[in-house]
Design brief:
Pfam families: Pribosyl_synth (PF14572), Pribosyltran_N (PF13793). By secondary structure, this protein is an alpha/beta fold. The protein has helices spanning 20-30, 70-86, 114-125, 154-164, 181-191, 264-275, 294-299, 315-320, 330-341, and strands at residues 8-12, 37-41, 47-51, 59-63, 91-96, 129-133, 148-151, 171-175, 194-199, 243-245, 252-260, 280-288, 305-309, 324-327.
Length: 357
C-alpha cells in the first residue's frame, strides 16, 4: 500500500548489493518501488551515475549507506544529487544514516574539519534537505545551510534491551569514558537503571611533543619580553589508573556509545568490568563500522553481545562473529521520508528527546 502522495522517487546511490538492502526495506514500508538508476565504476575508477527515469518536478530521496570505500560512496552521492538537480527535481533529500567523516568535526592542530568540507560539497551539489542519525557531534548540523534532521536510534536500542535481555532490571548502564557519560545517563534515566563510568582508560590522542608550536625557540629571547607578559605553561595531562565510578558487581553491564569501529577500547572496558564483578556484558551502538579485525577481537573478548543498527551494512562481520546482532531502523527513516514528502511535521519523531540526548 502506498502511504505517500504522488511525485516521490527513492534512489539508492550505492552500487554494493548489501548496501541496497536498507533502501529496499524503506521502499517496501512506503509502498513504492525503488527508482531506476545505474551506478558503476569505469575502468579508470571514475564513478558514473545514470538515472533511468524522469525526476522532473518530483521529490527525490537519495539513500546512501557507507561502505569500506567511503570516498567512493561520497562521490556516488554527490554525482547522483547533482544529476537529479540538473534533471530539474523539485527537491533532493539525502538520507545518510551514518554521516561520513563525522569523527573529523574538530580542528586538531594543523589538520582540518573534514566533516565541514563534506557538508559544503553536498550542499553545493544540490542537496536541499538531509536526514541522518545520531551524528557523532550534534553541532555538525551547523555545517549545513540546509535543514538537517538528526534522528535517534535510542528508542530501538532501548526496546531491544527491554525485550531481549530478560533480567535487564539487574543491569547498569556503562559509559566507557567520561565523554560518553551523557549518552549513558540518557539510557539509564529512561530504563530507570543505575550508571557507571570508566575513567582513566587510554585515549587516542596525538602527542603534544610532535607539534612544532610547542618547540622551544633556538635562542632565548626572554629579555625582549616584559616578565608580566610571559605566557604560563599549561600543565600536561596525566592519565589516572583505570577506575570504575559506580557499582557493577553481580550486575549486567550495558556499554552504550554512538559508534563502534576500533573495538580495542570496548574490549578493554569489558575486561575491566569483568574484573569488577559484572557477569554479563553487552555493547550497544548506533553505527557498527566494525573495521579490520573487529569481529575476531569481539569473538575472543569478554563481551557477550554487540548490538548495532543497520545504518551501515555489516553482514560479513556477522558471519565472522555470531555475537553481533542487528536492530532494524528502516521504520523511522521511512516515516521521516513520508512526513517530509507529505509536508507533515517532523516533531513526532523527536518526542521526549531533550537537548542533551
Amino acid at each position: 500500500m502506498n502511504h505517500t502522495k504522488g511525485g516521490l522517487v527513492i534512489f539508492t546511490a550505492n552500487s554494493h548489493p548489501s548496501s541496497r538492502e536498507l533502501g529496499k526495506r524503506i521502499a517496501e514500508r512506503l509502498g513504492v518501488e525503488l527508482g531506476k538508476v545505474q551506478v558503476y565504476q569505469e575502468a579508470n575508477r571514475e564513478t558514473r551515475v545514470q538515472i533511468q527515469e524522469s525526476v522532473r518536478g518530483k521529490d527525490v530521496f537519495v539513500i546512501q549507506t557507507m561502505s569500506k570505500d567511503v570516498n567512493t560512496t561520497i562521490m556516488e552521492m554527490l554525482i547522483m544529487v547533482y544529476a537529479c538537480r540538473t534533471s530539474c527535481a523539485k527537491s533532493i533529500t539525502g538520507v545518510l544514516p551514518y554521516f561520513p567523516y563525522s569523527k573529523q568535526c574538530k580542528m586538531r592542530k594543523r589538520g582540518s574539519i573534514v566533516s565541514k568540507l563534506v557538508a559544503s560539497m553536498m550542499c553545493k551539489a544540490g542537496l536541499t534537505h538531509l536526514i541522518t542519525m545520531d551524528l557523532h557531534q550534534k553541532e555538525i548540523q551547523g555545517f549545513f545551510n540546509i535543514p538537517v534532521d538528526n534522528l535517534r536510534a535510542s528508542p530501538f536500542l532501548l526496546q531491544y534491551i527491554q525485550e531481549e535481555i530478560p533480567d535487564y532490571r539487574n543491569a547498569v548502564i556503562v559509559a566507557k569514558s567520561p565523554a560518553s557519560a551523557k549518552r549513558a545517563q540518557s539510557f539509564a534515566e529512561r530504563l530507570r537503571l543505575g550508571i557507571a563510568v570508566i575513567h582513566g582508560e587510554a585515549q587516542d590522542a596525538e602527542s603534544d611533543q610532535v607539534d612544532g608550536r610547542h618547540s622551544p625557540p633556538t635562542v632565548k629571547t626572554t629579555g625582549a619580553i616584559h616578565p608580566s607578559m610571559e605566557i604560563p605553561l599549561l600543565i600536561p595531562k596525566e592519565k589516572p589508573p583505570i577506575t570504575v565510578v559506580g557499582d557493577v558487581g553481580g550486575r549486567i553491564a550495558i556499554i552504550v556509545d554512538d559508534i563502534i569501529d576500533d573495538v580495542d577500547s570496548f574490549v578493554a572496558a569489558a575486561e575491566t568490568l569483568k574484573e569488577r564483578g559484572a557477569y554479563k556484558i553487552f555493547v550497544m551502538a548506533t553505527h557498527g563500522l566494525l573495521s579490520s579485525d573487529a569481529p575476531r577481537f569481539i569473538e575472543e573478548s569478554a563481551i557477550d553481545e554487540v548490538v548495532v543498527t543497520n545504518t551501515i551494512p555489516h553482514e560479513l562481520q556477522k558471519l565472522q562473529c555470531p555475537k553481533i546482532k542487528t536492530v532494524d531502523i528502516s521504520m523511522i527513516l521511512s516515516e521521516a521520508i513520508r512526513r517530509i514528502h507529505n509536508e507533515e511535521s517532523m516533531s513526532y519523531l523527536f518526542r521526549n528527546i531533550g537537548v542533551d540526548d
